[in-house]
Amino acid sequence: NRASQFTNWVRFAADVLMGVPSIVVGIFAYAVIVRPFGGFSTLAGSVALAAIMIPLVTRTTEEMVLLVPPELREASLALGVPNWRTTLSVVARTALSGITTGVILAVARVSGETAPLLFTAFGNRFWSTSLFHPINTLTVQVYTYAISPFADWQRQAWAGALVLTAIILALELGVRWVTGGAAKAPR
Fold it and tell me: Can you give the pLDDT of all 187 residues of the chain as single tens digits?
């Protein structure tokens, strides 16, 4: 069956990509995006971070969908609901809190990544809103300030780390509020 083979290849690719170190993703994005387009950019940084996030979201979504009891699907189909509508209304809705948790985990993972951004977005000490120019990121700023010899910059690095932690906490609390409590696997 071609669909089954395709599914197995996607699963295998996602598993392999989840194990790739982030610095390798950064080097790959540098070779594929930064070099050919002639410079560091926000776009290159976002592609590198997406390459880290997508496999995690893919596998989490698959696992959450597999946890949906088959009886729910069968009941929906027995009522005459089309397969696509069953997938959207029953399966996706049932797995939504787990999928959302997977997305938040992926965001939490990339929010602390510095290595791919050093190779792609590079950093910019000046304000930039262009997708095609270097941009400063909080993680690169924390790294730069943490290794500096200046006590004031080191304090600012700690403050940046606190801000990153607060952002992740706020995202997690927001997900719990939106999904109606702790994210639970469907029963």
Answer: 787 899 899 999 999 999 999 999 999 999 999 999 989 999 999 999 999 999 999 999 999 999 999 999 999 999 999 999 999 999 999 998 889 888 888 888 888 888 898 899 887 777 788 888 888 888 888 988 999 999 999 999 999 999 998 988 888 788 778 767 654 544 4
Q: Which domain holds residue 120?
A: 2-72+79-137
Q: 130-149 burial string, b = 16+ CB within 10 Å, else e? A: eeebbbbbbbbbbbbbeeee
Q: What pTM value is reported for the model?
A: 0.80
State the CATH number of the domain containing residue 90: 1.10.3720.10
Q: Return the closest-CA partner of residue 101 out of 67, 57, 132.
A: 57
Q: Is residue 88 part of a domain?
A: yes
CA angle 59, 64, 69 (to 5 degrees): 140
Count of the separate structural domains present in the chain: 1
Quick check: is 56 in a domain? yes
